[in-house]
Amino acid sequence: MGKAGTVLKQVLEAYGISQNKLAVAMGIGRSSINRWVNENRDPGGDAILEIRKGLNTINPVAAEEFIGLYLDESFASGTIETMRKAGKSLRQVLEAYNISQNKLAIAMGIGRSTIHHWVNESRDPGGDAILEIRKGLNKINPAAAEEFIRVYLDESDEGELVDQE
């Protein structure tokens, strides 16, 4: 039972968006939305991105509210149009800030193999894992944590990292 489903339910109710309307906007079945909002299943990392895109087509303010609540911060802004895949973003940040997969795994209290799967995009981190990645990076280097979210939410295809100096 994850945070993403709870936040999605709050946003749908607050903005009067039906599960069916979001499902149509996302091109998926309403049963998936229902499972997420009833917390029977947490949406994965890519699904978080698709939820945001679907909400954006219905109500851009709701999309930004979803991301803002999900991240517990005000990262959401009207300039966000698309998001990056979590594994690629994580790899870029680890390389740019010279953080080893093992160091992040220790900070997060998980196995290094999990980080390896994410970084090599053989497995996508689940919705709540995005928050845990940010927390782990924040323990090591707060700037890297902020950069991870920035790159993850970056609208460009390039996902260029901001100069860290």
UniProtKB/TrEMBL annotation:
<keyword id="KW-0805">Transcription regulation</keyword>
<dbReference type="Pfam" id="PF01381">
    <property type="entry name" value="HTH_3"/>
</dbReference>
<keyword id="KW-0238">DNA-binding</keyword>
<feature type="domain" description="HTH cro/C1-type">
    <location>
        <begin position="8"/>
        <end position="61"/>
    </location>
</feature>
<protein>
    <submittedName>
        <fullName>Helix-turn-helix domain protein</fullName>
    </submittedName>
</protein>
<dbReference type="InterPro" id="IPR001387">
    <property type="entry name" value="Cro/C1-type_HTH"/>
</dbReference>
<dbReference type="GO" id="GO:0003677">
    <property type="term" value="F:DNA binding"/>
</dbReference>
<feature type="domain" description="HTH cro/C1-type">
    <location>
        <begin position="90"/>
        <end position="145"/>
    </location>
</feature>
<dbReference type="InterPro" id="IPR010982">
    <property type="entry name" value="Lambda_DNA-bd_dom_sf"/>
</dbReference>
<keyword id="KW-0804">Transcription</keyword>
